[in-house]
Amino acid sequence: QVQLVESGGGLVQAGGSLRLSCAASGSIFRLNAIAWYRQAPGKQRELVADISTGGSTHYADSVKGRFTISRGDAKNTVYLQMNSLKPEDTAVYYCNTNPVLYHWGQGTQVTVSS
Fold first, then answer.
1. Confidence of residue 73 (pLDDT cuts 50, 70, 90)
2. What is the pairing mode between strands 34-39 and 18-24?
3. What is the dihedral of CA 21, 23, 28, 34, to 10 degrees?
4. Taking Cα atoms as reference points, which of 106, 114, 113 lies closest to residue 4?
5. What is the 3-state secondary structure (H, E, C) of the chain?
6. I need a labelling partner for 46 at 20 to 30 A (CA). Which of 35, 38, 76, 88 fits?
7. Among candidates 109, 78, 106, which has minimal Cα distance to 9?
8. HSE, side-chain direction, 13 A CA sphere, residue 36
């Protein structure tokens, strides 16, 4: 019923930037905390960043100071601005609520070359 659609990924050189977008049906992003997760091959999916309904943000230590999460509630969207990208940021990035309430979307691939 609820669809989560991630976009904006791609191939970028180390030190570059990307802006990921997530769109969801309904108003779930107005009623729940939203998070970006990522999963690299052979590794467990991990929380990257989240933002509360009140706008408070939290970041994994590995991305703090480089990534910024923000809401676009009027359009049921959430963004992840990624700067100073590193090869270890390479992963498939997903959006969802925190805690996870919905089926995962397809994700968007981010590949950072050295």
1. low
2. unpaired
3. -20
4. 106
5. CCCEEEECCEEEECCCCEEEEEEECCCHHHHCCEEEEEECCCCCCEEEEEECCCCCEEECCCCCCCEEEEEEHHHCEEEEEECCCCHHHCEEEEEEECCCCCCCCCCEEEEEEC
6. 76
7. 109
8. 34
